[in-house]
Amino acid sequence: MIATLGLNQILDDLPNRFRGPGGVAGVVKDGEVIAARAWGYSDLASRRKMTVGTRLPICSISKQFTCAVLLHHFDDFAPLNARLPELLPHFEGDLPTVEQLCHNQSGLRDYWALTILQGAKAEQTFARDDAFLMFDRMKTTHFDPGTSYSYCNANFRLVGELIEREIGRSLQGLLSETIWGPAGMKTAALLPDSRVPADGVIGYEGSEQSGYMPADNGIYWFGDAGISASLEDMLAYESWIDAERNNPDGLYNRISAEPTFKDGTPARYGYGLAHIEVAGRKVTGHAGALRGFRAFRMHCASERLSVVVLLNHEGSAYGAAEALFHAAIGHVAPAPIAMPDGWEGQWLCPETNLLSAIETGKTDGHLHFATGGDPLHAADDGTLTGANVTLSRDGDTMVMARKDENLVSRLVPLPKSPITPSEEFAGRYYSDELDATFTIVAEGGGLYAVCEGVLGAGIMERVHPVGPDAWIFVTRRSMDAPAPGDWTITAKRGFDGKIEGLVLGCWLARKICYRRL
Asked: In this structure, how many other beta carbons lie within 10 angstroms of the beta carbon of residue 215?
């Protein structure tokens, strides 16, 4: 039973709860569209209205479509595995498999995060061949393939390239033939050049506090993103998923099969789909983002319920989709438990060399670790929990369990003082892994850093000390979105006690070593 009154009320509230220039949202139940709403403007300057037929970038939601094409055309990935060395010519050690690419278990560092370290500016052009410059410089992984999970857009760009090379046809044509035609997605298109948006739609950075500014995007992407579709297209896709629900060979059933890690442990991401829980129901779905755009779609097989939200601003598409899902099933979230004292602090995760910091409020908290961080709530068993993380105490030790990453880490406390003197830290450093430099400048009491590499010289970004021989390198804007955010820097000292190198990383690209020049 659908709570229609509550659903319509949430739809009416979306423009005010998730404020921005415009958006679209829709709901499919039992294969039928029961709600489709557009509001606002696709271009504020020309006063062009947003409609359910306006095509918007679905960004990383594209990944599941790439994987569906893969499974449709290949029963055996061996020919593609054999081709992977062509795209990663300088890789050292065992390469990941194509399946591990599709499950984000490759261990490869995300190439959009690495564009920052290679000197890219947020607005510059990233051409098709620039991806190969990045692949040429990939030599190692930041974990053994198949043992953990980290989000990596390069995985799906590689899969897209492999499909085209092996079949000898464009991914655009394969998508149309395999999915868009059968699903009735009449206007969906692969538009890999983000400088040429479908239907002239404009994405906006900013907020009501700062004002909205048209986002200037210049990246070329496919396989990992690049598809534009209207709400009508996406709701047709959701209806097709429902129509194929009893077909074991249906493409969505195949891509949504529950994945595992190499050791057999259940995983939460496979074939371009995240496996999550919403209101206690198992859901498959995915988010999408580009500067100025946000998207989210999810499907709950047990309820035969799908929700789609596409925005041309940087509001929470997931938050809007979750509100619609809750309204559709009549779910009321339980009252939060008061947050206990004594959880705040900061640590280093030894497996990733990333800063882990907890902040708490009256009824919730926040873990700074992965991109965007993890919202936390107190649980009845005395732990702090989030969608992907549980924090517990083992005596005086903080333990972080991240099921989606197959990771349990005993965190190492990081005191906030003493702070390493800036003059010890300042200097120029070089990464043999990336063939790129990282220069630290002490300027008037502040610390700044600039990255230089195959994509140019980036802008000066702020660096903040967080403890002895530990700093945060702050990136809030990049070619892709959301930006990596905070990078953790730790110093390596030689026998003489002097800093001889650095280890730099973010959740998307970890443990990159630099040596002082």
From this structure: 23
pTM: 0.96
Task: Kindly report, residue by residue over 30-55, the tens digit of the pLDDT.
Answer: 999 999 999 999 999 999 999 999 99
Beta bridge partners of 392: 399
DSSP string, 4-72: HHHHHHHHHHHHHHS-SSEEEEEEEETTEEEEEEEEEEEETTTTEEP-TT--EE-GGGHHHHHHHHHHH
Q: Are 245 and 234 in contact (CB under 8 A)?
A: no
* Centroid of chain to Cα 101: 15
* Residue 504 backbone zone (phi > 0: left; psi -120 to 50: alpha; other: beta): beta
Q: What pLDDT score does 333 carry?
A: 84
Distance CA(467)–CA(455), nearest Å, equals 32
What order do you get walking across the sheet with 305-311 strand by strand? 48-49, 32-43, 22-29, 305-311, 293-300, 281-290, 273-278, 269-270
Distance between CA atoms of residues 239 and 100, nearest Å:
29
* Order of strands, sheet of 227-229, starting from the edge strand that comes earlier in the sequence: 56-57, 227-229, 189-190
Q: Answer for the pair 338, 376: CB distance below 8 angstroms, yes or no.
A: no
- Over residues 121-154, the pLDDT tens digits come to 999 999 999 999 999 999 999 999 999 999 999 9
Residue type, 379: A
> Out of 63, 230, 256, 511, which one is annotated catalytic?
63
**What whole-number distance in Å separates Cα of residue 421 and Cα of residue 362?**
36
Do residues 56 and 229 make contact, with C-beta atoms less than 8 angstroms apart? yes
Nearest residue to 388 via CA among 507, 293, 469, 242:
507
pLDDT tier at 350, thresholds 50, 70, 90:
very high
d(CA 408, CA 436): 32
> Which DSSP letter does residue 259 get?
P
Structure tokens at 454: 């195959």
Q: Which residue from 477, 481, 487, 478 is spatially nearest to 509, judged by alpha carbons? A: 487
Q: Which of 42, 60, 256, 431 is catalytic?
A: 60
60 assigned to active site: yes
**From CA 390, how far away is CA 399, in angstroms rounded?**
8
Whether 176 is catalytic is no
